[in-house]
Design goal:
It is a single chain. With 132 residues, this protein is an alpha+beta fold. It has a single domain, classed as Cation efflux protein, cytoplasmic domain (Alpha-Beta Plaits, 2-Layer Sandwich). It has 3 helices and 6 strands, in the order ββαβαββαβ. Helix 1 crosses helix 3. The protein starts with 5 loop residues before the first strand and ends in a 17-residue tail after the last strand. This is Putative alkaline shock family protein YloU. It comes from Baia soyae.
């Protein structure tokens, strides 16, 4: 069962919803060079195709005894994937802990896709010039 992280003060308590941690993690992950975007389920991927982007897609936050964040990514072709994964882990940990004060115990990065560069368009809009 997930418990909302709370901080008690003189005026009461401050609760931080898991969705907030998802958004912070999404912003941190997509800010890393080599990350094209987040990868979610079929519905989320369809929403991205029609132009709707969600910074929570592809991110799961578990707040049981430990705080675990799982993130699914699409990376750019040619980048060193282990290095990008480590940078994503460091970026998420730093952002979440700085903004919320919640200690992140584990970050699981799952690369679910690679995006290849698009062929350059010619003057008349064709991607592959043809002999005429």
């Amino acid at each position: 069962m997930e418990h909302l992280p709370t901080q008690n003060g003189n005026l009461g308590k401050v609760e931080i919803a898991p969705e907030v941690l998802q958004v912070i993690s999404g912003l941190a992950a997509t800010g890393v060079k080599g990350v094209i975007g987040l990868s979610g389920g079929v519905v989320e991927n369809f929403n991205q195709l029609i132009g709707r982007k969600s910074l929570r897609q592809g991110i799961t936050v578990n707040l049981d005894e430990t705080t675990t964040i799982e993130v699914s990514l699409v990376v750019e072709y040619g980048v060193p994937i282990p290095e990008v994964g480590k940078q994503v882990q460091e970026s998420i940990k730093s952002a979440v802990e700085t903004m919320t004060g919640i200690q992140v115990d584990q970050i699981v990065v799952r690369v679910e896709g690679i995006k290849f560069p698009q062929p350059e368009k010619t003057k008349d809009g064709e991607s592959n010039p043809r002999v005429r």
